[in-house]
Amino acid sequence: xAQIIDGKVISQQIKDELKEKVAALKNEGKEVCLAxxxxxxDPASTVYVGNKKKACEYIxxxxxxxxxxxxxxxxxxxxxxxKLNKDDTVHGILVQLPVPKHINEENIINAISPTKDVDxxxxxxVGALSIGQKGFVSCTPAGVIQLLKRSGIEISGKECVxxxxxxxxGKPMSMLLLRENxxxxxxxxxxxxxxxxxxxxxxxxxxxxxxxxxxxSYVKEGATVIDVGIHRxxxxxxxxxxxxxxxxxxxxxxxxxxxGVGPMTIAMLMNNCVEAGMN
Length: 279
Hints:
Elements: E1 3-4, H1 7-27, E2 33-39, H2 43-59, E3 62-68, H3 74-86, E4 92-95, H4 105-111, H5 123-130, H6 139-150, E5 159-163, H7 170-179, E6 183-187, H8 194-198, E7 203-206, E8 224-227, E9 231-232, E10 238-239, H9 244-247, E11 253-254, H10 262-278
Parallel strand pairs: 1-11, 2-3, 2-4, 5-6, 5-7, 7-8, 8-11
Antiparallel strand pairs: 9-10
């Protein structure tokens, strides 16, 4: 039986620790503040924004909501970001992605001050991570590291395989595992003998974006399997990139979907906000 890595429990631990930190900051007269900007009303984005507001409320972080219409121009959005960059009472700025097609996502990410980039997407944040300097780290990969550490899973010296090379998960994930002294291989759609590479992994992180693609034939017995994917299957049930039913019996440890990596993303976003407020 695999150890089930419970993201709900671990994210709650982190939120409770942050709540104490925020209370201590309040006693010093400091209030942590996050500004969340949502353009349009994409249903998934609305759910995510709602969850972020709830987490802020629980921890004691002040949240400012900018819910602006779909037809807002890029210039208007950049104007809001500029105003928030200059506002010393705002510590974190988050633009909920995706933005409508007429707005250039890259321009928006680049406009947020790196000192307020709590999503960890700014090129300066990514560059700092790659050369081992201090900066905000993309929330999902940071959450995966916390899941491993708080579940007693050693990273140092382990063979780590990351499937997926996105800027938001795959690349920062590989750098964080490297920072923890893992030996890291990144796989992607052009990788030859994907199964063989995956079967070497002591820690397998799957962020490939294909429902239940990774079954038991990809996994070494006793490996730790982290599933970053989230999809709805043909029965409208949530599932990940890993075929949980076939992998769980041979894995040493595994994250479920839902309730694994998902809750950690918001917990680490809150962690970044608190760090921004402490600086």
